[in-house]
Design a protein that fits this description.
The cytochrome bc1 complex contains 3 respiratory subunits (MT-CYB, CYC1 and UQCRFS1), 2 core proteins (UQCRC1 and UQCRC2) and probably 6 low-molecular weight proteins. It is a multi-pass membrane protein. Keywords: Electron transport, Heme, Iron, Membrane, Metal-binding, Mitochondrion, Mitochondrion inner membrane, Respiratory chain, Transmembrane, Transmembrane helix, Transport, Ubiquinone. It is found in: Mitochondrion inner membrane. InterPro entries: Cyt_b/b6_N, Cytb/b6-like_sf, Cytochrome_b_N_euk/bac, Di-haem_cyt_TM. By secondary structure, the chain is an all-alpha fold. It has one domain: Up-down Bundle (Cytochrome Bc1 Complex, Chain C). Helix content is 72%, strand content 0%.
Length: 185
């Protein structure tokens, strides 16, 4: 499932780049820019649906990949496994900030509720939430930050994926037979 994850990542990055050409990260026009992409941009509806549904496919492949890793004991290769966990967290963060970008009611309240969960952290929680928001509530600064994170995180995911593959190449991967394909490793 790792190769499928690579394909999903490439599709998400390519469709995301096309969407970013027409998206406006401003609270007064974000929703309208998404409507513009779907209605006025040639094949914009297709690109947006590929991007949105591609994210769901990405998570299906991730869960299958993690399940396979758990079943075959891939967690024994600690560096590879830990990088995989970091990748999972990065993908979840990217999906969350991407969910906020259309700036509908679900997006706004999703951002408000999920970021407010951080306020439960003792001593620094409230300060952390206000820092993420860029003020005292979810507003224009929040949307701009989330768009920036959503644009940059996939490239970080690509870099960490390369490291993940490097460690996988170093240790070798697990398989149903439990046999290694290269006895020198």
């Amino acid at each position: 499932f790792g190769s499928l994850l690579g394909i999903c990542l490439i599709i998400e990055i390519l469709t995301g780049l096309f969407l970013a050409m027409h998206y406006t990260a401003d609270i007064s026009s974000a929703f309208s820019s998404v409507a513009h992409i779907c209605r006025d941009v040639q094949y914009g509806w297709l690109i947006r649906n590929l991007h949105a549904n591609g994210a769901s496919m990405f998570f299906i492949c991730i869960y299958l990949h993690v399940g396979r890793g758990l079943y075959y004991g891939s967690y024994m290769f600690k560096e590879t496994w830990n990088l995989g966990v970091i990748l999972l967290l990065l993908v979840m963060a990217t999906a969350f900030v991407g969910y906020v970008l259309p700036w509908g009611q679900m997006s706004f309240w999703g951002a408000t509720v999920i970021t407010n969960l951080l306020s439960a952290i003792p001593y620094i929680g409230t300060t952390l939430v206000e820092w993420i928001w860029g003020g005292f509530s979810v507003d224009n600064a929040t949307l701009t930050r989330f768009f920036t994170f959503h644009f940059l995180l996939p490239f970080a995911i690509m870099g960490v994926s390369m490291m993940h593959l490097l460690f996988l190449h170093e240790t070798g991967s697990n398989n149903p037979t439990g046999l290694t394909s290269n006895t020198d490793k």
